[in-house]
Design a protein that fits this description.
The protein contains 17 helices and 13 strands. The protein has about 425 residues and is α/β, with parallel strands linked by helices. The structure holds adenosine monophosphate.
């Protein structure tokens, strides 16, 4: 199948060709005709599969085909895309800019954490397509800057992550302020029960499209596991970066604090690194991301939520500096590399305290990831679980992320620690 055979508007075919796409990805092959037909869609697909184009292209097509005479000069918002993170919203906005560049349709992106002035100005000028994070959408709608009475298409992207992040109430509120009669598309990387329920309440006789069976890791990604003691993780990370001659690498930590620590450690070793996480300002995050994309920074250290939606073309390496305690997170992490069929490599650094989490990951992905034993920092009993010590160095913070942590509940760190942590600028 080619894009040309899909009856897409010529303005879209031109943009797709300019992007250098020749063949639609599997999700695009399945989803584009469904969306073009006006039907609701339930899409189970990870980022990295070409999911954004799978909805952006047919939405642009529909809006072109049904181009409305503008009443009284006002451009109504006709398509709304709700996403869990600012990064993802920005990236989806970029996709609309790319695929829609010859359509004359206008879009804008709105998200929280920045002043609203430029966003409200864009809205007042009129947009056809609005990409949002939910909090700022509701806020601006309440202030009277956003009217959704003419909405034709609603997309909920990364619905599973949206629910994980506690945005279900926002989603319900949005459903109340958009027309009942509309086309709805829901995308989610996983389909747990709460997503199925949500989809039943939002979608009308949807066509279901499954691209990545739950928990399956992209086949193109070459995964390796290293057992290592906690105190050797930094050295092993540096060793891997140098040994593999990684030009750019995305490193995942569980916590913001952990991300900052890794950055400081790498900088001391003269490896350029920046962190991207929720404590950084929006501008700071965008700058870190563009430095990384431009190759100015070799290592981007990210927490899971901040990294969701990061799309770096040609990213080969992902390092799991810490093993995630939610197994699906591993699938999302490694999905950052090897995108759209290119080769990716993922390295997991697993200390004895993380062995249980690692076993759960292997159960989910249905794979035994090859273990590399031939490295300079081997562990005494590789693959054997060990409980975390009671008052370990990073325990207090790590355990905050574990639901009902079963062990090692370290007492909170003394205030002195957190104060000195933020006062490095003198
Ligand atoms: P997504 O899953 O939407 O995050 O897309 C992943 C990556 O695949 C992005 O970098 C897109 O530019 C790229 N991509 C999307 N569709 C195609 C296609 N048909 N051919 C080649 N690359 C594509």
């Amino acid at each position: 199948m080619t894009f040309d055979s899909m009856n897409l508007h010529p303005a879209l075919l031109r943009a797709v060709a300019e992007e250098g796409y020749t063949t639609p990805t599997p999700i695009q092959q399945q989803a584009i005709p469904v969306v073009m037909s006006g039907r609701d869609l339930l899409g189970c697909a990870q980022t990295g599969t070409g999911k954004t184009a799978a909805f952006a292209i047919p939405i642009l097509h529909q809006l072109m085909e049904r181009r409305k005479a503008q009443q009284g000069g006002r451009r109504p918002i006709r398509a709304l895309i709700a996403t869990p993170t600012r990064e993802l919203a920005i990236q989806i906005g970029e996709s609309f800019a790319n695929y829609g560049r010859h359509t004359g349709l206008r879009h804008t992106v709105i998200f929280g954490g920045v002043t609203q002035g430029s966003q409200t100005r864009a809205l007042q000028q009129g947009v056809d397509i609005l990409v949002v994070t939910t909090g700022r959408l509701l806020d601006l709608q309440q202030q009277g800057f956003i009217h959704l009475n003419d909405l034709e298409i609603f997309v909920l992207d990364e619905a599973d992550r949206m629910l994980d992040m506690g945005f279900i109430h926002d989603v319900r509120k949005i459903l109340k302020i958009i027309p009942q009669k509309r086309q709805t598309l829901l995308f989610s990387a996983t389909m747990p029960d709460d997503i199925v329920k949500l989809s039943q309440s939002m979608l009308h006789q949807p066509k279901r499209v499954d691209i990545t069976p739950q928990g399956t890791t992209a086949e193109t990604i070459h995964q390796r596991l290293y057992y290592v003691e906690r105190q050797d993780k930094n050295d092993l990370l540096v060793h891997l970066i140098n040994e593999e001659k990684m030009e750019t690498v995305l490193v995942f930590t569980r916590t913001k604090h952990g991300a900052d620590k890794v950055v400081r450690m790498l900088n001391k070793k003269n490896i350029t690194a920046e962190a991207i996480h929720g404590n950084k300002s929006q501008n700071n995050r965008q700058r870190a991301l563009s430095n990384f994309k431009d190759g100015k920074t070799r290592v981007l250290v990210a927490t899971d939520i901040a990294a969701r939606g990061i799309d770096v073309e040609g990213l080969t390496y992902v390092v799991n500096y810490e093993i995630p305690n939610i197994s699906e997170t591993y699938v999302h992490r490694i999905g950052r590399s090897g995108r759209a069929g290119s080769a990716g490599r993922s390295f997991a650094l697993c200390m004895p305290e993380e062995v249980k989490d690692w076993r759960n990951i292997e159960k989910l992905i249905g794979l035994k990831v090859p273990v590399i034993t031939d490295h300079p920092y081997p562990c005494e009993n590789p693959g054997v679980y060990r409980e975390a010590p009671k008052a370990e160095q990073t325990g207090g913070r790590r355990n905050q992320q574990r639901p009902a942590a079963s062990h090692a509940h370290a007492s909170p760190r003394p205030k002195r620690f957190s104060r000195s942590y933020g006062s490095g600028r003198r």
